[in-house]
Amino acid sequence: MESHGYFRVPPQIINISSDITVNEGSSVTLMCLAFGRPEPTVTWKHLSGKGRGFVSEDEYLEISGITRDQSGEYECSAVNDVAAPDIRRVKVTVNYPPYISNAKNTGASVGQKGILRCEASAVPVAEFQWFKEETRLANGLDGVRIENKGRMSTLTFFNVSEKDYGNYTCVATNKLGNTNASIILYGPGAVHDGSNAASRAMACLWLSGTLLAHFLIKF
């Protein structure tokens, strides 16, 4: 009587998606093919900042209308009862247009240093421009310094004068779009609301190639 042996094979991931970069709102399909005996169970998990969240128990993970919160690493696990799981990861980068999260009016006395700050979240990282009324500001001119570091741009006045007071516009741009916020530099005793002056001024900006048209409407 012949005996047919049953070969037990540890789980092995034989094909998995490469790292991918997509725009927010796109549909994404991740693939993770595995082999083993018994046939392994394949599970996808999203390794978010909140921990390992369960996503799907399937070789294919489909995400419709992906959001920025769904970016990060996705872990594929192939599991059977023969050996330890085979685990691989895929990085998903989600591009999205700039969003200004911090831009507050700032007070400074004449002769003192004044700093306006503009923080924007974006992927890829945003590029910044500063305007006063219709004029684009240049770094190092008129006693101001513009410094961009990651998500933050600062406009520094080393020796504030009366002519420096007024409305400034921070523009954040990447390849997916642009956004802006109005910020006021004010002196002692000036009436202000401490916010980004959205109720006091509206900036309208359009990008066409390298040309930026800027208009300010005061209420």
Automatic annotation (TrEMBL):
PANTHER family hit by this protein: IGLON FAMILY OF IMMUNOGLOBULIN SUPERFAMILY-RELATED, OPIOID-BINDING PROTEIN_CELL ADHESION MOLECULE
Record has Repeat as a keyword: yes
Gene3D superfamilies in UniProt: Immunoglobulins
Broad class of the protein's primary localization: membrane
Topology relative to the membrane: Lipid-anchor; GPI-anchor
Record protein name field: Ig-like domain-containing protein
Keywords carried by this UniProt record: Cell adhesion, Cell membrane, Disulfide bond, Glycoprotein, GPI-anchor, Immunoglobulin domain, Lipoprotein, Membrane, Repeat, Signal
UniProt GO cellular component terms: plasma membrane; side of membrane
Record family assignment: Belongs to the immunoglobulin superfamily. IgLON family.
Gene Ontology biological process terms, A to Z: cell adhesion
Domain Ig-like: 11-93, 97-184
Subcellular location, record wording: Cell membrane
